[in-house]
Structures are given as C-alpha cells and as structure tokens.
Specification:
single chain, 115 residues, alpha/beta, Rossmann fold, 5 helices, 43% helix
C-alpha cells in the first residue's frame, strides 16, 4: 500500500512513518496541505495521514479539496487537537478517521489490510 504523511513537523512525520512503516510499500511525505494535493494527484496513495494545523493550506481544507477531486481518497486526520467540533468538521470535509497524536498506534489498526 502507498501512504502519504502530511505534517508540518518533520519529527512527527518521522514518528508516524516509523509506526506504519511495515504496513506500507511506499511512504510519501510533505509539510502542508497544498503539497498534499499535488502529491496525492501524482501518486494516488491508498491512505493519507493528515495533520490539521499547518501553514499555507490546513488539513481540513486539503482534505476537502482532495476528496472533491478524488472521492475514493481515504484520509485520516492525525492531530494533537481534541474536540467534537473539530472531529465533525473533519468528517464533513471527508475524513474517514481521526487519531490523536498521543495515540499513533491506533493508525496500525486503521491501516491494517483485511486478512
């Protein structure tokens, strides 16, 4: 499977990649939502792991834009921000999951291929 990790903090991207490395054949990464749109269009990853708070284009906006052009995209918000309002906004934008950065191991459950 191909993954795209989108976070403005390189250390967080490395940590996420470490957590999911054995589940992916290819992992792409970038640091903002605008780059995420370009990389998604070019590589068509099965999953996008998207932060919310980023410069230029935030994760909610990028999710909305990617889903508008690629309805099949599976985007999981990976954030430090907790709250029902943000979860609902992410869901409305098209995200299929919401994982707090303190619970990164949950990504393994979400991404695990069906047996």
């Amino acid at each position: 499977m191909k993954l795209l990790v989108v976070d403005d903090d390189a250390r967080v991207r490395r940590l996420i990649k470490t957590v999911v490395a054995d589940l992916a054949e290819e992992i792409f990464e970038c640091n903002d939502g605008a780059q995420a749109q370009t990389i998604f269009a070019e590589h068509q990853p099965e999953w996008v792991l998207m932060d919310i708070s980023m410069a230029d284009v935030d994760g909610i906006t990028a999710t909305r834009r990617i889903k508008a052009e690629h309805p099949e995209a599976q985007i999981v918000i990976v954030t430090a921000h907790e709250g029902a309002a943000l979860r609902e906004e992410a869901r409305r934008a098209g995200a299929c999951g919401y994982v707090l950065k303190e619970n990164l191991l949950e990504l393994r459950i979400l991404l695990k291929p069906e047996a």
